[in-house]
From TrEMBL:
The UniProt record lists the keyword ATP-binding: no
PANTHER family tied to this protein: 2-METHOXY-6-POLYPRENYL-1,4-BENZOQUINOL METHYLASE, MITOCHONDRIAL, METHYLTRANSFERASE
The protein's name in its UniProt record: Ubiquinone/menaquinone biosynthesis C-methyltransferase UbiE
Organism taxonomic ancestry: Bacteria, Pseudomonadati, Pseudomonadota, Gammaproteobacteria, Pseudomonadales
Secretion signal, residue range per the UniProt entry: none
Single GO term (MF): 2-methoxy-6-polyprenyl-1,4-benzoquinol methyltransferase activity
Top-level taxon: Bacteria
Length: 70
């Protein structure tokens, strides 16, 4: 849904869509300024591993944004 919205708006040129295992993100350390997950952490089996992986790919001073109901 999100990808389709961006394509419709024509802003997909600088966005790459990747489907990956949250517990083992396929990105180098210190790669992103921001990592987000919305209503997905509840579906991850090993939440601590996923959070560790997300923090690993963040640049120093980067932000991890988690959106959940619980």
């Amino acid at each position: 849904v999100g990808r389709d919205r961006l394509l419709d708006l024509g802003v997909s040129g600088n966005v790459e869509f990747v489907q990956a295992d949250a517990e083992k993100l396929p990105f180098p350390d210190n790669h992103f300024d921001c990592v987000t997950i919305a209503f997905g952490l509840r579906n991850v089996t090993h939440k601590e591993d996923a959070l560790r992986s997300m923090l690993r790919v963040l640049k120093p001073g980067g932000r991890l944004l988690v959106l959940e109901f619980s």
